[in-house]
Write the structure tokens for this entry.
Amino acid sequence: MRRGQMEMVGLVMVVVIIILGIVLYLAFSDKSPSLTGKAKDTQTYTSFLTALSETDVPSCGVAFSQVAGACLAGNPSLCDGKDPCVETQKAMREVLRHTLYRQGINYNLSLGKVENVSGCLANASEMYSPSIPVVYPGGGGSGKLTLSICP
Amino acid sequence: MRRAYTRCVRNARFEKRAQLQSMEPILIVMFLALIIGLLLLFSLRIGDREVEVTATKEASKQDLLLLGRIANLPELSCPKSESAKTYCIDMFKAEAFRQLMKDDDVARSSYYPLLGASEIAVEWIDMDSNGASINKSMVLYDNLNSSGVRPAVAYSTMYNPASPGAARMFATVTIYRRAG
Amino acid sequence: MKGQLEVSFQWVYVLIAGGAFLLMFFFVFKSCTESGDERAQGMSVRATANAISLAAWQEGSVNFTFAADVSCVGDVLTLQALEGTARSQLDQVPAFLPPRLAGKSNVVTREVALTQTGVPSIRLGNVVYALDERTRYYVQRSHETRLKHVLGNSPSIIYVDSFSNLQVPGGVETVVLVGDNLPAVTLPQTKAKVYGVTLSEPQAIFYTASNDRLGSPKVELYTGDYMMVGAVVAARPQTYRCAKENFARRTGAVLGIYHTRNENLAIDFQNIPDPRTQVCIEPLMRANLLIFNLIDGRSARLDDLSTATTPLMTHQRTLQGLGCPVIA
């Protein structure tokens, strides 16, 4: 009886060591370092919006944020008679074409009704959705310029 | 004679069992020492792994901070009157900086503590009044001798002081570092 | 009896075998952690040096906790860990650091620029000052305004009317006396290392205490307020010289970039038949001549910076008024 018990104990010890080894190996060998993740990308895309808002629109001679504000307010006087919403759309298209579109990122850049979409519909599950305020020229209201990024 | 033989065999069996029983404590102690040793070694590996993960996260964060600092350097930034909420790079300063980094080894090494072993490039979108655009680019600093690279990106504007009307253009600043 | 002896003999084997195994693993563990510690220490001092280097390029204030010796090795500011042999250089960062960093330190980066009200400033670069909690500065009141302007309020700096009867609290490792006529002072009773700096334009004179009195002075020339304050924080002539030269190098690079930029702008404007930009050419070229005279090889002539301020800012104002791109 004693010998049988000792054999059992020995067997259990061997099994415990093997299980311990496997568990620890699995737990710690394949962990790939995760980057700063969501915070980092949100910061990058927010800087995208800020840079876009301060970019000059040559056809209007003023910054994008002002043209976008005029579009939201329905005010055509800013762009020498041209439709500010059309100029906003053109500027968005050109910027996105050389940046997010070229990188293959699925996005939806929207300013009220003016939208520029590539593979990221309004109701789709988004990863990030930073936005910045856009003010009407001369005050009196504001809207949002939103960049949604889809996986 | 037969009784002596039987007794001999019985004694031999007893001896073997006694040997086995006396080996057991040694084996137990060796197993325990093995477990303790394995645990010690694994704790070392965990420690190493944590340092590695922290180091990589830190590197990412540093890249983003660096991108912010680059555009704020007096060597590259727009005059104070131009830079509003975001980063603004003066195109003519950028060209002068690029030339300095390319031609002057002493100057390039003096910026090493800030820029390190990296390549810093800026692209900007030159739009015209008809809505068409061209993508232009410039490598500001190149001190990277590596094939595997890890880019970090920030967005900015490129200011052209020679063009009074449409002076600020959408720009992308990319810093490439050795991956891994 | 024989059985008992046999049993205890077996247990000796058991103990030896088990002990040998444990010892083996223990040595492996110990050597791994030792090299890990060394690596960590090296990483820590390198991380600190990198952090100071990085902080140096942007205005602001950062706090560190580290222990390091500051020295100038071949014109390069260097940090060396106080325990162990780890060393990391700061590499041409324009930093004025106290002689020793023993505990918590507040590293302050300040921008250096030529300024005038109502006109965009002409930025020249940054300098870094570190105030260490175990370094105590006793500063004569005549320098209070200037120091506070650059370093802000700090518990490390005590403004005094006279240097007599200074009581140095425990835990202070370094004392720096800053005044106008230091050799006449009585040194405070303290085990801390004592340095002295007299600041009277255009010189900063450095002293180190030996045999209960301030020893022979080392004279260093300096120019500009920011340089003088740097002398206070460095408290050692070699470190101060290192920092000043690094600052001159970077400012020289910055001015060189401004010069190239303005030259190319003026050339472009010459090729554009636009009266709005044609008026910009002459003021840009005049400013550029001044900037050119401020550069000596690759470094800035720090002596001339303050005298160049007014004429440069006049050109800056002119350019701004004409709607032209300003100097920088």
User: Anything to note?
Assistant: Chains A and C do not touch (no CB pair under 8 Å). Residues 31-36 of chain A have pLDDT under 50 and may be disordered. Chain A has one domain: 38-150. Strands of chain A lie at 56-57, 62-63, 106-111, 114-118, 131-135, 142-150.
